[in-house]
Amino acid sequence: MSDQDIERSVIDALAISGQQYEVLECDPDFADTAAFCERYGIAPEDSANAIIVVGKSEPRQYVCCVVLATTRLDVNGAVRRRLGVKKASFASADETRELTGMSIGGVTPVSLPPGVPVWVDARVLERERVVIGGGSRSMKILLPPSFFAALPNCEIVPDLATPATPAMPAPPP
Fold it and tell me: Strand, coil or helix: what is 154?
């Protein structure tokens, strides 16, 4: 499926949801969260990342986790336990593309293949609005977090993520 086909399926799913949303065009070179926020003046706390995680047991289990850019997904704790597996990790870029048709930097919880659950960190619902991926690196979606309540196969999960700790400054030379 091409990026344009995925974008169209995302827009169609958003239109059917009845929720308000705004499509934001994005230079693909600035699709990664930090670069996007800086380039387009979006506060990181209003940016939500959709991350595909894979449970490493057979058969492999996938989940799309949505967390604020100011938090870190608790893959080895909350996600692993909820999946009921011994090991979980971020899906590789190739595995994400194969499963969803989407590239890292554009992954969205909208219009995922059937059977892929969406888990949203409860902190996302505390925001007035959030920007999520639009299915490609060229498109983002601005929407109210209430959208997730209408999203099929979606659960709100307390403490799916933890607050990101600021990077430690380099020691003086």
Answer: strand
Sign of the four-CA dihedral 40, 42, 43, 47: negative
Residue ranges of the chain whose pLDDT lies below 50: 168
Helix (H, G, I), strand (E, B) or coil at 16: helix
**Domains of the chain, residue spans:** 3-160
- Looking at residue 171, its pLDDT comes to 53
Q: What stretches of 26-170 show up as alpha helix (H) in DSSP? A: 33-40, 80-83, 93-100, 147-150
Per-residue pLDDT tens for 88-138?
999 999 999 999 999 999 999 999 998 999 999 999 999 999 999 999 999
Amino acid letter for position 104: I
CB-based burial label for 163 (10 Å; 0-12, 13-18, 19+): exposed
- Cα→Cα distances 26→16, 29, 40, 73, Å: 23, 8, 9, 24
124: tokens are 């996302």
Could you tell me the fold of the domain covering 3-160?
YbaK protein (3.90.960)
Contacts of 67 (CB under 8 A, 6+ apart): 48, 49, 51, 73, 120, 121, 123, 124, 160, 161
